Recover the amino acids of this structure.
Protein backbone atom coordinates (compact mmCIF):
# COMPACT_ATOMS: atom_id res chain seq x y z
CA UNK A 1 0.00 0.00 0.00
CA UNK A 2 1.45 3.32 -1.06
CA UNK A 3 0.77 6.08 1.48
CA UNK A 4 2.35 8.85 -0.58
CA UNK A 5 0.54 10.31 -3.59
CA UNK A 6 1.86 8.83 -6.83
CA UNK A 7 3.47 10.91 -9.50
CA UNK A 8 1.24 10.97 -12.64
CA UNK A 9 3.92 9.39 -14.82
CA UNK A 10 4.12 6.39 -12.46
CA UNK A 11 0.39 5.76 -12.23
CA UNK A 12 0.23 3.50 -15.33
CA UNK A 13 3.35 1.57 -14.34
CA UNK A 14 2.17 1.02 -10.78
CA UNK A 15 -1.30 -0.02 -11.90
CA UNK A 16 0.24 -2.90 -13.86
CA UNK A 17 2.11 -4.33 -10.86
CA UNK A 18 0.20 -6.70 -8.66
CA UNK A 19 0.26 -6.78 -4.91
CA UNK A 20 2.14 -10.09 -4.92
CA UNK A 21 4.86 -8.64 -7.14
CA UNK A 22 5.28 -5.76 -4.66
CA UNK A 23 5.49 -8.20 -1.77
CA UNK A 24 8.14 -10.33 -3.48
CA UNK A 25 10.35 -7.49 -4.63
CA UNK A 26 13.03 -6.43 -2.16
CA UNK A 27 14.89 -3.35 -3.23
CA UNK A 28 18.55 -2.80 -2.47
CA UNK A 29 17.54 0.31 -0.50
CA UNK A 30 15.25 -1.71 1.79
CA UNK A 31 17.82 -4.46 2.17
CA UNK A 32 20.59 -2.01 3.04
CA UNK A 33 18.28 -0.05 5.33
CA UNK A 34 17.36 -3.20 7.21
CA UNK A 35 20.99 -4.27 7.49
CA UNK A 36 21.96 -0.81 8.75
CA UNK A 37 19.20 -0.92 11.37
CA UNK A 38 20.29 -4.39 12.49
CA UNK A 39 23.91 -3.25 12.83
CA UNK A 40 22.84 -0.15 14.77
CA UNK A 41 20.77 -2.31 17.10
CA UNK A 42 23.65 -4.75 17.62
CA UNK A 43 26.12 -1.87 18.05
CA UNK A 44 23.98 -0.37 20.79
CA UNK A 45 24.45 -3.49 22.88
CA UNK A 46 21.01 -4.76 21.92
CA UNK A 47 19.16 -1.78 23.34
CA UNK A 48 16.57 -0.02 21.25
CA UNK A 49 15.10 3.31 22.20
CA UNK A 50 11.61 4.36 21.23
CA UNK A 51 10.33 7.86 21.82
CA UNK A 52 7.03 7.38 23.54
CA UNK A 53 4.37 10.02 23.30
CA UNK A 54 2.47 10.88 26.44
CA UNK A 55 -0.25 8.41 27.34
CA UNK A 56 -3.71 9.65 28.11
CA UNK A 57 -2.60 9.89 31.75
CA UNK A 58 0.35 12.18 30.99
CA UNK A 59 0.59 15.87 30.19
CA UNK A 60 3.23 18.57 30.17
CA UNK A 61 3.12 21.88 32.05
CA UNK A 62 5.48 24.80 32.46
CA UNK A 63 7.21 25.36 35.81
CA UNK A 64 4.98 28.41 36.52
CA UNK A 65 1.81 26.41 35.87
CA UNK A 66 2.98 23.64 38.19
CA UNK A 67 3.97 26.09 40.93
CA UNK A 68 0.51 27.64 40.82
CA UNK A 69 -1.11 24.19 41.03
CA UNK A 70 1.16 23.16 43.93
CA UNK A 71 0.32 26.35 45.83
CA UNK A 72 -3.38 25.65 45.28
CA UNK A 73 -2.93 22.13 46.66
CA UNK A 74 -3.95 20.55 43.36
CA UNK A 75 -0.69 18.75 42.46
CA UNK A 76 2.06 16.75 44.16
CA UNK A 77 5.40 17.98 42.80
CA UNK A 78 8.20 15.39 42.98
CA UNK A 79 11.84 16.36 42.40
CA UNK A 80 13.38 13.14 41.07
CA UNK A 81 17.00 14.31 40.88
CA UNK A 82 19.89 13.05 43.00
CA UNK A 83 20.69 14.42 46.49
CA UNK A 84 23.84 16.16 45.20
CA UNK A 85 21.68 18.03 42.67
CA UNK A 86 19.22 19.03 45.39
CA UNK A 87 22.14 20.34 47.46
CA UNK A 88 23.53 22.35 44.50
CA UNK A 89 20.34 24.14 43.44
CA UNK A 90 17.79 23.60 46.17
CA UNK A 91 14.39 22.05 45.59
CA UNK A 92 11.45 23.66 43.84
CA UNK A 93 9.04 25.21 46.33
CA UNK A 94 6.54 22.63 47.51
CA UNK A 95 8.39 19.69 45.95
CA UNK A 96 8.94 16.34 47.63
CA UNK A 97 12.45 15.02 46.91
CA UNK A 98 12.36 11.37 45.83
CA UNK A 99 15.54 10.10 44.16
CA UNK A 100 14.55 8.22 41.01
CA UNK A 101 17.26 5.61 41.67
CA UNK A 102 15.36 4.25 44.66
CA UNK A 103 14.26 0.65 44.21
CA UNK A 104 10.87 1.62 45.62
CA UNK A 105 10.53 4.84 43.58
CA UNK A 106 6.97 4.20 42.36
CA UNK A 107 5.84 3.12 45.83
CA UNK A 108 7.43 6.22 47.40
CA UNK A 109 5.58 8.48 44.94
CA UNK A 110 2.30 6.70 45.61
CA UNK A 111 2.84 7.06 49.38
CA UNK A 112 3.51 10.80 49.03
CA UNK A 113 0.16 11.48 47.34
CA UNK A 114 -2.59 13.07 49.41
CA UNK A 115 -5.21 11.03 47.52
CA UNK A 116 -5.03 8.19 45.01
CA UNK A 117 -6.14 10.47 42.19
CA UNK A 118 -3.91 13.45 43.05
CA UNK A 119 -1.95 14.49 39.94
CA UNK A 120 1.81 13.93 40.22
CA UNK A 121 4.20 16.38 38.55
CA UNK A 122 7.79 15.26 37.97
CA UNK A 123 10.77 17.58 37.67
CA UNK A 124 14.44 16.77 37.06
CA UNK A 125 17.34 18.87 35.77
CA UNK A 126 16.45 19.18 32.08
CA UNK A 127 13.33 17.08 31.48
CA UNK A 128 14.98 13.90 30.26
CA UNK A 129 14.67 11.78 33.39
CA UNK A 130 11.22 13.11 34.24
CA UNK A 131 10.04 12.06 30.79
CA UNK A 132 11.31 8.51 31.33
CA UNK A 133 9.81 8.30 34.79
CA UNK A 134 6.36 9.37 33.59
CA UNK A 135 6.35 6.18 31.54
CA UNK A 136 7.43 4.08 34.55
CA UNK A 137 4.77 5.62 36.80
CA UNK A 138 2.13 5.23 34.12
CA UNK A 139 2.99 1.53 33.90
CA UNK A 140 2.70 1.34 37.73
CA UNK A 141 -0.84 2.70 37.47
CA UNK A 142 -0.12 6.21 38.73
CA UNK A 143 -2.28 8.77 36.97
CA UNK A 144 -2.54 11.56 36.12
CA UNK A 145 1.13 12.36 35.60
CA UNK A 146 2.54 15.76 34.63
CA UNK A 147 5.98 16.13 33.08
CA UNK A 148 7.88 19.40 33.43
CA UNK A 149 10.07 19.22 30.31
CA UNK A 150 12.00 22.42 31.11
CA UNK A 151 13.30 20.92 34.36
CA UNK A 152 15.15 22.93 36.97
CA UNK A 153 18.00 24.01 34.67
CA UNK A 154 16.18 24.53 31.38
CA UNK A 155 16.03 22.63 28.11
CA UNK A 156 14.84 23.13 24.55
CA UNK A 157 11.34 23.27 26.05
CA UNK A 158 12.13 26.47 27.96
CA UNK A 159 14.39 28.23 30.45
CA UNK A 160 13.57 26.06 33.47
CA UNK A 161 12.56 26.64 37.07
CA UNK A 162 15.71 28.48 38.15
CA UNK A 163 16.00 30.88 35.19
CA UNK A 164 12.32 31.69 35.56
CA UNK A 165 13.33 32.82 39.05
CA UNK A 166 10.76 30.59 40.71
CA UNK A 167 11.22 29.91 44.44
CA UNK A 168 13.37 27.10 45.79
CA UNK A 169 14.01 25.78 49.27
CA UNK A 170 17.33 24.53 50.56
CA UNK A 171 17.78 20.80 50.88
CA UNK A 172 19.45 19.38 53.95
CA UNK A 173 20.43 15.74 54.08
Amino acid sequence: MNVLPEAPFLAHHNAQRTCSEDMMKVSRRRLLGGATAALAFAGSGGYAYLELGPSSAQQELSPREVLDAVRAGQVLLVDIRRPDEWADTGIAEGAVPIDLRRDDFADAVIAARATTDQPVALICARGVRSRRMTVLLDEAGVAPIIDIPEGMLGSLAGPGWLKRDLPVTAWNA
In short: Residues 8-43 form one domain. The two ends are 60 Å apart (CA to CA). The first strand starts at residue 58 and ends at 60. The first helix runs from residue 8 to 16.
